[in-house]
Amino acid sequence: MSSGTFAVLGLFSDAHKIVEAAQQIRPRQLGRLEAYTPYPVHGLDRAIGLAPSRLGRLVMLMGVIGAGLALLFEGWVSAVDYPLVTSGKPLFSWQAFVPVMFEVTVLFATFTAGLAMLFAFNKLPFFGHPVLHSKAIKSITRDKLALSIEATSATFDAETARQALLQNGAESVEIVPVPVWNRPLSLVGLLRTIAGIVAACAVAGAGLFALEKLIPIVPPMVHMHEQPKLNAFRVSSFFADGRGMRPAVTGTVARGHLPPAFATPEEAGTLLGNPLPLTQPIAERGRKVFNDHCAICHGLVGDGVPLLSHAYGGKPGNFLSNEIRARPDGHYFGVLMLGKNAMPSYAADLDNHDRWAAVHYIRILQRAQNAKDEDL
Amino acid sequence: MSPVSPRSSLVRNLLVALTLVGAAGTAGVYVSASRERFWVNWLVWTLFLLTLGLGNLFLVALERLVSAHWSVPMRRVPERIASLIPLAIVLLLIAFFGVPVIFPWTYPAVAHNPILVAKTAWLNLPFFAVRFAVCAVVWMLFYRFYVRGSLRQDENKDPAFTVRARRLAPAFMVVFFFSVTILAFDWISGLEPEWYSDMFGVYLFAGTFISGIAAMLVGVLSLMRRGRLPEVQTKHVYNLGTLGLAFTVFFAYIGFAQYLLIWYANLPEEVIWFKHRIDGAWQPVALLLPLLHFFIPFFLLIGALGKKHPATLRVAALSILLGHFVDLYWLVFPVLGPTPLFGWPELSMACFFLGLGLLQIRRAMGRGADIPVSDPLLSRGLEWQL
Amino acid sequence: MSDEQSTPPTWGSEAKGLANRFALGSGVAVTFLLFGLIVVPALLRERRPLARPPSDQPAAASVGWLDQAEAPASKGRDLPPVDPATVMTPNPKLLGRGEVLFKQNCSSCHGEGGQGNGPAAGTLNPRPRNFTQPADWKRGFHVTDIFTTISTGIKGSGMAAFDFIMPADRMALVHTVRSLGGFDHGPEDPKALAALADQFRSKGFHIPNRIPVSLAIKKIVREQVAVPPLPMPPAEDKSASAELLRLLIADPSRAARTVAATAKRSDLAAVARAWAAGAPDNGFAPAVAELSATEWGTILHSLAGTNQEAKQP
User: Fold this and answer.
1) A88: which chain B residues are within 8 Å (Cβ-Cβ)?
2) Which residues of A340-359 are buried (b: 16+ CB within 10 A; e: fewer)?
3) 8-state DSSP, A12
4) Could you tell me which CATH number the domain at C77-207 has?
5) Mutating which of C50, C149, C220 best tests the A interface, going by the most A Cβ atoms within 10 A?
6) With an 8 Å Cβ cutoff, are C42 and A213 in contact?
7) Residue B228, in any domain of the structure
8) How far apart are CA C188 and CA A5, in angstroms?
C-alpha cells in the first residue's frame, strides 16, 4: 500500500524529543522529513535537514535591480527625456533620486520576499494540504508537535517509517493517505468566479466614477492639484507685497543666463540670427521642444489651431501665414523670451539651445506646409 | 585575572613605546606646528576615544533596558571599553586650553558678527564649561554605576543590582541623548558656529552607537581568538553583527538625510558647511566616508554567512572604526582650510592617543572576570538560541 | 470525501446553492443598474464638443492623422478667382459662414458679440476694437478698410494678418464684423470697391504643397551650406589682435555662422550690437559687449579679412 500513502505522522509533546527523533531518523533516509509545530522550535530546521533558504539571495538581487531601475528611470526622465531644471539643481541630481531608489529597493525586496516565499518556495496556491485532513491536525495546531516522513519514492515503506517514529519516542503515529481529488474543475464554478471578479471590478470602478462625476462634493480621490499650496499668480498672505510668485532678487541673473539684449521681438529680429547649425539632431530636438511646449496652442503643424480644444481663450498665431513667415529667426526667439499678446514668456522654461532649435523646427514646419514643387 | 604571559607583556611594552613615541611627537607638534592644527588633532582624537566609550556604555545600558539575554556573556567587553570615558573626559578638560584657539565664537571679532552676537546666550565660555561639566558628571556617574556595579556583582552575587540597572536605564537613555547632542553641538558644530543642523546631534549619536558596536565586535573577537571567552559562540557574535548591520544602515540614513535636506534647501548659510567638506580637495575624504562607514560593512554583514565568519566581522568592524575616525576628521579638520592635512603631526598624535586608549582598555581588561559570572541572566544568555 | 458525495443533499446545501444564485443575480442586476442609471448618464454629461474644430484652412490634408505633421504629401492647387458679385454685398449664406469663422478666429479677442471683450482681450495693448460702436477704428469701418485690416493685420497691435483665410471667407468676416455694429457705416468709396473687385477677379488663392515634416527635415538639412569655422590665429601668435580674437571667439564654427549672417551689413555699429546681443550663443564670448571702439576696429578688420579668405574658394 505504499502508493496510497502521502506521509507517516508521528506526534510528540516535547520539543527536545522531536529534535532528537529527527536527528536519529534523518540518516536512515526513509523519506523526506517535515515537521509541523504550533510554535517555532530552535534547531528543528537543521535536524530535519532543511537547507538554508535561497530567499535571501533572491531578495538581494531584486533589491539591487530595484535600486538600479529607479536610478535609470529617474535619470532618464529628468536628464534625458524631459530635462527640466528644478530649483537650480543639475538635471542628473543623484541626491534627489536616493529617496526614490530607497523606496523602490524596499518595494522590490519586500514584494520579492513575500511573493517568492508564498508562490515559489511554499508552492502556493494549493487547496488542502493532505495533513490538513489528518486526525492529528487538531492537536498539531494546539499543543502537539508532529514529525512526518513523506513518501518520496515507490519503495517507501509506511510500516518501517511507523516503527522508526515509535522507536524514537513518538506518542502516536498516523498514516496520512494521498488525497483523492474527486471534485473536477467545473465550468459553472469557473464562470461564477469570473463573473464575480468582473462584477466586483465593475461595481468598484463604476461607483468611483459615478461619485466623482455626479456627486463632486464627495470626491473619492483627493487630486494632487487640490493640495494646499501656492499656485502661480496667486495671492500670498505670507509675503508683505502679497505676491505668491517671487520676483528675482534685484540686480541678479540666473547662473549661465544673460538677460536678453533686446526690448521687443522686433528688435530681437534685427539683432539675432540662429546660431545653431541646422542638423538632423537639432531638428529632432526642435521637434521635441515644439511638440512639448508649443504644439498645445500652435498645433502640431503650426497652423495656430490648438490641440487643447478652445479651453484657453486666445487665438494662437498661425506660423503658416505670410505675415509670420516673413519674420526673421530672431523675432521668433524674441517672442519666446518676452512673450507676445496672450502668450507668456518662455524665458524660464527653455534654455537658449532649445529655443533656437524650436525656431529651426518652426522653419521646417513652414517648409513642410508650403513645400516647393521639387520636394514632392 | 588573566595570567601575565610573556607575549602579553611584550604587547604592553609595545603599547607603552607607541604612546611614548606619540607623546614625543605630540610635544613636537605643539612646539613646531600651528596651534590650531595641534588642538584640532587633539579634539578629533579625544572625541574618537570618548564616542567609543560612550557607545559602549550605551550598549551596556541598552542591554539592561530591554533585559537582553544574548549579549550578557559578552557584556564585559563593552564595560571595559567604556573605561575610555574617564580618560577622554580628562583629555577633553585639557582641550579647554584650545577652546580660545579653535572656536571662532571665542574670538573678539564676534562683536562684529550679528549671527554670533545673537548666539552669545548659548555660546559663551562659562555656559559652555557648565554644559560640559554637567555632561561629564552624568557620564561618570552612569559609568561608575554600570561598570563598577557589574564588577561588584561578581563578588557579592546580588541579583538586585540587575533590577536596579534596568530601572535606571530609561533615565540613562534620556540623559544620554541630551548629552551626546550637546557634545555634538558644542564640540563639533561649534567650530563653525554660523552653521546649524537640527540633525547633527542624531548624526553624532548614530556614529557613536555604530562605532561602539564595532569596537565591541573587535574586542569580543580578539578575546575569543585568545580563548578568553570560551562560552561565547558564533550565535552571539552573529547577533552582534546583525545589530551592527542595522545601525550601519541607520547611520547612513541619518547622514544622508542631513545632507539631502541641506542640499535640497540650498540655503547659503547651511550649504556652505557641506560645500567646504565635499568640494575640491576634500572630495576624496567625503567619498571615503560612505565607503568605509556604509558600503563595506553593509555588504560584508548583509549575508548570514558573513555574520558567522570572524574574519569578515573583523574587517567590517575595523572598516566602521576607520570610517568613524574619517568621519570625525571630515567633520573637524575642514576648519583648518580647503586641503585635508595629514602628515607627521597627525600620525604622531594618532600614535599617542591610540596608545593611550589601548593601554586604558588593557588596564580595564585586567579587572574582574571575562564574563559576568554572577549575572542572573547569564545562563539564559548562554542557552539563548538564534 | 467520497462519503460526502454519496449522502443526499441536505437543506443546508440547497440553501447554499440558492444563496449563490441570488448573489450572482443581484450582482449582475446591480451592475446593470449602475451602468444604466449612473455611468452612462455621467458619460453623456461628460461629452464635450469635438476637441479640434474643423480647420478654417482649405484642404487641410492633415485631418485624421494622429501626428498631423506626418500626413502624406499632397500637391498644391490654385483655387479659381472669386466672382465679386457673390461677396461684395452681404447675403445669408455669407453671413452664416462668417459667423463660424468669427467664432474660430476673432471672438477670443474681440468677444462673441464683437464688443472687444474676449477672454484674451486683457492681455492686449492696445485693446481689441469694439465693433459695436463707431469710435476709434484705426483704418475705418468701410468694407475695403476692414478687408485690408484682416488681410494684413495692424502693425504695433495684437491684430495679426489673417492672410491664410481664403479671400471669399475674409469677405464673409468683413460682413459679419459690420453686421455686429448697429450704427450707420456710411457710404462706400466706389473707387476702392471697384479696385477690390478687380483684385478678386484677377487673382485666385493658392493652396501650397504639403510634405511630411520628417521629409522636410531631411530636405532642409541637406540644403544647408556648411560655413567653415573661423580660422583662429596660431598659438604662437602673440600679437594684440590675435590675443583679442582668442579672447572673443568662444566657438569658431558658430562665430563663423554669425559673421556670415551679418556679412552683408554695412553699418559696423549695428553689426557690433548684433554680435554682442547674441553672445555667448553665437560663438562670441560675452566680453564682446565691452570692447572699445579701437578694439572693434581691430576685430572687424581681422574678421573681415578671414571672411574674405573663407569666401574665395
Assistant:
1) 266
2) bbbbeebbeebebebbbbbb
3) E
4) 1.10.760.10
5) C220
6) yes
7) yes
8) 111
**Could you tell me if residue B286 is inside a domain?**
yes
The pLDDT tens digits for C190-228 are 888 888 898 888 888 888 888 989 999 999 999 988 888
Q: How many CA atoms lie within 13 A of C15 on its CB side?
A: 3
Mutate to test the interface with A, among C75, C154, C221 (most CBs of A within 10 A): C221
Candidates B223, B182, B173; CA nearest to B57 is B173
Establish if B1 belongs to a structural domain.
no
Query: Hey, is C312 helix, strand or coil?
Result: coil
Q: Which of residues 302-331 of A touch C (CB under 8 A)?
A: 303, 305, 307, 309-310, 312-315, 317-318, 320-324
Contact status, residue C48 vs residue A300, Cβ threshold 8 Å: no
* SS3 sequence of A258-286: CCCCCCCHHHHHHHCCCCCCCCHHHHHHH
Measure the CA–CA gap between B101 and B95, rounded to whole angstroms: 10
Amino acid letter at B357? G
Distance in angstroms (rounded) separating the CA atoms of residues C231 and C234:
9
Residue range(s) defining the domain that contains residue B35: 8-383
Cell numbers for C247: 579672447
Q: Which helix (H) or strand (E) holds A32?
A: strand A32-36
Kindly tell me the sign of the dihedral angle through the C-alpha atoms of B232, B234, B239, B243: positive
Residue A287 in contact with partner chain C when CB distance is under 8 A = yes
Q: Tell me whether B383 touches chain A (CB under 8 Å).
A: no
Radius of gyration of chain B (CA): 21
Residue B206: inside a domain, yes or no?
yes
Identify residue B195 by its one-letter amino acid code: W
Domains in chain A, CATH or no CATH each: 1-181 (no CATH), 265-375 (1.10.760.10)
The reply to whether B386 touches chain A by the CB within 8 Å rule is: yes
* pLDDT confidence of residue A183: 64
For residue B264, give the chain A residue with the closest CA. Answer: A96
* Contacts C278 to A, Cβ<8 Å: 261, 271-273, 275
pLDDT for the residue B26: 92
Question: Touching check for B156 and chain A: CB below 8 Å?
Answer: no
Give A21→chain C minimum CA distance, Å: 33
Contacts of residue B254, Cβ cutoff 8 Å, sequence gap at least 6: B199, B202, B203, B206
**Alpha helices, H only, chain B:** 6-32, 35-66, 76-81, 84-95, 99-102, 114-118, 125-143, 149-156, 160-183, 200-225, 234-265, 268-278, 283-290, 296-301, 304-308, 310-332, 344-365, 378-383
C109: nearest CA in chain A?
A314
- Report pLDDT for C49: 43
Domain boundaries, chain C: 77-207, 240-311
C24 with A318: Cβ contact below 8 A: no
Number of domains making up chain B: 1
Share of chain C above pLDDT 70, in %: 85
pLDDT of residue C55: 45
- For residues A186 and A303, what is the distance between their CA atoms, to the nearest angstrom? 61
Q: Establish how many alpha carbons lie within 13 A of residue C248's alpha carbon, considering only the half-sphere containing its beta carbon.
A: 27
- Cβ neighbours of residue B195 closer than 8 Å, sequence gap 6 or more: B189, B269, B270, B272, B273
Q: Report A:11-50 residues touching B (Cβ under 8 A).
A: 42-43
Residue range A193-218: average pLDDT?
A: 84
In the structure grid, which three cell numbers stand for residue B362, read together? 588593557
CB-based contacts of C125, cutoff 8 Å, min separation 6: C158
- Give the highest mean pLDDT range of B102-106, B324-328, C52-56: B324-328
Q: 3-state class of A11 per DSSP?
A: strand
CA C56 to chain CA centroid, nearest Å: 13
Residue A34 pairs in a beta bridge with A148
Beta-carbon neighbour count of residue A299 at 10 Å? 23
